Amino acid sequence: MKTKSLILVALLCLAALIIGTIPAMPASPKYRDGSFIGVVKDVKRGDTVVEVVIKSGKIAEVNVVMPTEEEVKKENYPPALEALKNIPKQIVAKQSTDVDVVTKATGSSKKYIEAVKMALANAEPKTDKLPAGVKWHDGTYAGLVRDPQHGDCVVEVVIKGGKIKEVNVIAPTAEYIKNYKYEPGKEAYKEIPKRILAAQSPDVDVYTKATGSSKKYMEAVRHALKQAE
């Protein structure tokens, strides 16, 4: 009986040793790799747009697209500039949106944080399987095309029932287009989103004499739809 007990103890110890040497399964990444855009709308003080870059499942970059640093500097309010620079750094350092707001720039800080939260929500792995023939998950997504020379392009795409229900241009702003002197450019701003909605695809004809603007809207929509996959 004593021998059997010793054998049992030995086997249990051996089993514990074997289990302890088996490598743990790697945890699933919290986020999908790629570029994800977050938007917080504010009619009174201007929209906030951020780009969050995910690499190897981690927050690698947080870039504020709107407002620009130049626009914030014009306000001549140091706390606002500090928020623009420091909130993204804090989020990357902590790998979290749970960061401290900048004193005397609470509103700006919170908008950057909320925009990042939207981007991260869209960066989370899509666990539900799409029905046959459906390409996109429902939700609100934003797409970005960088253009230092002519200005960045930002669009918002709303997906409902797996279909494109809305395409809204955030940048350039409606105010900017209102004062724009080139008529084909103004028309492309209105027409390209309509064409994309009708075609249920960003692969539409460019607007005559506004090829550059048309292509930026189309590419920004592609970026948004990529996040919806």
Descriptive tags:
single chain, 229 residues, Sufe protein. Chain: A, 2 domains, three-stranded antiparallel beta sheet, 7 helices, flat
CATH class of the largest domain: Alpha Beta
- Provide the structure class: alpha+beta
Range of helix content = 40-55%
Q: Any idea what the shape is?
A: flat
Radius of gyration: 24 Å
* Count of DSSP-assigned helices: 7
Strand content: 15-25%
Q: How many beta-strand segments? A: 6
Q: Could you say how many structural domains there are in total?
A: 2
Helices and strands, in order, run as HEEEHHHEEEHHH
In the CATH hierarchy, the architecture of the largest domain is: Alpha-Beta Complex
Report the CATH topology name of the largest domain.
Sufe protein. Chain: A
What can be said about the biggest beta sheet? 3 strands, antiparallel
- Regions with pLDDT < 50 over 5+ consecutive residues? none
Q: What separation lies between the terminal Cα atoms? A: 63 Å
What integer is the average pLDDT? 92
Main β-sheet, spatial strand arrangement: 1-2-3
Descriptive overview:
The chain folds into 2 domains: 34-123, Sufe protein. Chain: A (Alpha-Beta Complex), CATH 3.90.1010.20; 139-228, Alpha-Beta Complex (Sufe protein. Chain: A), CATH 3.90.1010. It is flat. It has a 3-stranded antiparallel beta sheet. The model has no long low-confidence stretch (mean pLDDT 92). Helix content is 44%, strand content 21%. A hairpin with a 2-residue loop joins strand 5 and strand 6. It is of the alpha+beta class and 229 residues long. Helix 3 (78-94) packs parallel to helix 4 (106-123) and helix 6 packs parallel to helix 7.
